[in-house]
Structures are given as structure tokens and as C-alpha cells.
Amino acid sequence: MFFRAPCSSIIAKAVRSRVRSKRFSVCRASLELVLSGAHPDEIAAARKQVEAVRAQIDRLEQELKYAQSELQRTELLMPLDGRLITPYLPQKRGSYLEKGDRFAVAEDDRIIQGEVRVPEYNVGEFAIGAQVEVKLLAYHGESLLGKVVAIEPTAASEGKISTDGTERVVRVIVDLENTDRLLKAGMTGYAKITGSPKPLIVAFTRPIVRFIQVEVWSWLP
Q1: Cβ atoms of residues 80 and 106 within 8 Å
Q2: Predicted TM-score (pTM) of this structure
Q3: What is the 3-state secondary structure of 123-147?
Q4: What letter does residue 120 receive in the DSSP assignment?
Q5: CA 145, CA 143: separation in Å to the nearest integer?
Q6: Spatial distance between the Cα atoms of 43 and 29, rounded to a whole number of angstroms
Q7: Beta strand extents in the chain (DSSP E only)
Q8: C-alpha span between 71 and 104 (Å, rounded)
Q9: Is the pLDDT of residue 2 over 50?
Q10: What is the CATH number of domain 110-219?
Q11: Partners of 114 in the beta sheet?
Q12: Cβ atoms within 10 Å, residue 142
């Protein structure tokens, strides 16, 4: 006995066989293309693109370095351990400083230099290194201790009128310890400078002795 397959079944098998053969051909062509490597023009184009990207990276790195250097220039550092005494600093935010411009004044307030105006007739009673005691008008119950570090070489007019005319003074520079941060720039007060010890009678009669030794002497022929 012989059996005959339907025509539709034979046609379907033939179609599937052709599809498989076509897929095989496509896959084989793709494999050959991969094995053959990239086209020289594609390689050259890829190299140019890589070089362009590298150049862009170098340019961005240079811009980053420049921006970092500019950012460092915006940071202002105090050259000493102290505080800023310039008023209204918040108003200077965003301002541009030219080379040599002053932004603020820093003060080392651990030791403050003060100026004591001593009558010229008392300058000879002490020397550099003498102890100084200062009382401020703002803190009358506190005393600050220091020492004389300099005596100005010239006398100046104080503006006060004495019996013999305008009183003249000598400016004495003193260093004051400010560990409690009580003393601030511009404050005023009174100072005592330790001089050579003298008997009580000499201390009270010194103006009279000075009058006789200087003014009476000037009257003599």
C-alpha cells in the first residue's frame, strides 16, 4: 500500500527549509563581516573622534585648574591669630578687590599696645621695661598690667593750659596683656608707671624742687 502526503504539508516543509537556509546565510554573512574586522574608514573616523574627545578633556581640565586657582584667590586668610576690627564687613560680600586693596584690618588682641601721655617733667623718672598698671574707663574695677616698650624721642603739645603755658607731653608706648579680651582698640583710661623709689618727702616736694632748679635758675644772671 502507498500513502500520499497532502500537498500543503510538503509546501510548508519546503518553506521552512528555505527560511532556515536564508537565516543561515544571513548569520554566516554577519560572522564573516565580524571576522573581517572594521573598515579602515570607520577606524580612521573612530580615531578622530577619540582625539577630539581627548582634546576636549584636556581643555576642560585646564578650565578646572584655572577655576580652582581663582577660587583659592577668593579665600582671605588672617596672617595672625586675632580678630578683625574693620566694621561693616558683611557689606563687602561680593566686592572685587584690586591688587593692593585692603579688605580688613586684623588685630592680635592677645597683647595690645597702648599710648600713655606722660608730662615731660616726669619722663626721667622711669625707663624702658618699667611696669605699667592701666585702668580703663569702661572697666574701672579691673587692672591691666604691662610694661614700657618705647619712649618717643620728641615731646608734643597736649592742648591743656598750665601755669606756664601749654603743657607738653611725651608719648610712651606700652604693651598690655589682654588675655581676658577686655581691652579693645580706641579705649581710654589712666595709667601708672613704676619709677625709681623715693622718700615720701621727696615725692611731695618734687614740684617745688623742680621749680627752684629750673625756673628760678632761669632767672639768675
Answers
A1: yes
A2: 0.49
A3: HHHCCCCCEEEEEECCCCCCCEEEE
A4: G
A5: 7
A6: 21
A7: 83-84, 106-107, 111-119, 131-136, 144-162, 165-177, 189-193
A8: 19
A9: no
A10: 2.40.30.170
A11: 174
A12: 13
